């Protein structure tokens, strides 16, 4: 009973947090006075002092690293992963944790349900002719329906969960993964080794993602609480040396 309630708490709380936590936008934490002030303040937060800072072509605001414009939300989202219609929200810097944990708790609950329901499900198949030997309160049809539903949701959400665990362990967003794969291909052709500059190794990435150490002990990762991530989402620590594409004239052939 305690384990089942814990799973339900994990699913409901993380879903609620994923829906209601703003993923993070460029103007977060800045006073809404005039646009000029915003521009300067965002640049200060990004620690960008170049003459031509990266700017979003659609909302004309400075574009911090890992930020992308969401055409559904019509604004730039910090550490943008994707826009998720199921939570009617973008998955970004401030709610990625809740999105991942929602997928994890839901998949775990589905596996647990399928495991616990397999006995009644098998018995249902056996006792088709003799209704008298059905010892459960739950009607047979509902057992069959729940078992099939748990299998289907477990597979679909589990696949998505595995993908997001892979991204978390390798410190990438969905978008970055596509870009990194592309650059990896170019590196391979040149005989170079690719390294993702946000990657601090599996343990380092987990500590960062779950804000362990600075905000709370390790077990806070397993508590469905509202715990914000490290940083403001406009600037990120860089562990790897990163790989900067050299678009010099010698390399043009490689890019064709
Ligand atoms: Zn934008
Ligand atoms: Zn969006």
UniProtKB/TrEMBL annotation:
Membrane topology annotation: Multi-pass membrane protein
The keyword Acyltransferase appears for this protein: yes
Alphabetical UniProt keywords: Acyltransferase, Lipoprotein, Membrane, Palmitate, Transferase, Transmembrane, Transmembrane helix
Lineage, broadest ranks: Eukaryota, Fungi, Fungi incertae sedis, Mucoromycota, Mortierellomycotina
Protein name stated in the entry: Palmitoyltransferase
Record domain Palmitoyltransferase DHHC: where: 55-180
InterPro entries named in the record: Palmitoyltrfase_DHHC, PFA4/ZDH16/20/ERF2-like
Membrane-traversing stretches: 98-123, 143-167
Catalytic activity as recorded in UniProt: L-cysteinyl-[protein] + hexadecanoyl-CoA = S-hexadecanoyl-L-cysteinyl-[protein] + CoA
Compartments, as annotated in UniProt: Membrane
Record EC number: 2.3.1.225
Origin: domain of life: Eukaryota
Chief location: membrane
Pfam families assigned to the protein according to its UniProt record, in alphabetical order: DHHC
Domain topic, free-text comment: The DHHC domain is required for palmitoyltransferase activity.
Claim: Transport is one of the keywords in the record: no
Entries under PANTHER family matching the protein: PALMITOYLTRANSFERASE ZDHHC16
Family label: Belongs to the DHHC palmitoyltransferase family.
């Amino acid at each position: 009973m305690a384990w089942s309630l814990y799973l339900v708490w994990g699913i409901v709380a993380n879903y609620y947090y994923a829906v209601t936590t703003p993923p993070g936008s460029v103007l977060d934490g800045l006073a809404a006075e005039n646009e000029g002030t915003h521009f300067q303040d965002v640049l200060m937060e990004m620690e960008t002092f170049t003459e031509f800072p990266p700017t979003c072509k659609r909302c004309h605001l400075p574009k911090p690293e890992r930020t992308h414009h969401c055409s559904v939300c019509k604004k730039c989202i910090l550490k943008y992963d994707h826009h998720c219609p199921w939570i009617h929200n973008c998955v970004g810097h401030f709610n990625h944790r809740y999105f991942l944990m929602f997928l994890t708790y839901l998949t775990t609950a589905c596996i647990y349900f399928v495991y616990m329901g397999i006995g009644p499900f098998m018995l249902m198949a056996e006792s088709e002719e003799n209704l008298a030997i059905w010892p459960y309160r739950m009607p047979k049809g509902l057992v069959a329906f729940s078992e099939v539903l748990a299998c289907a949701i477990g597979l679909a959400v589990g696949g998505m969960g595995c993908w997001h665990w892979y991204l978390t362990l390798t410190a990438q967003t969905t978008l970055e993964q596509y870009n990194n794969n592309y650059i990896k291909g170019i590196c391979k052709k040149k005989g170079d080794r690719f390294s993702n500059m946000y990657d601090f190794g599996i343990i380092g990435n987990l500590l960062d993602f779950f804000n362990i150490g600075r905000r709370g002990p390790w077990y806070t990762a397993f508590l469905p609480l509202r715990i914000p991530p490290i940083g403001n989402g406009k600037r990120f620590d860089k562990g790897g040396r990163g790989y900067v594409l050299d678009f010099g004239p010698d390399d043009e052939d490689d890019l064709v």
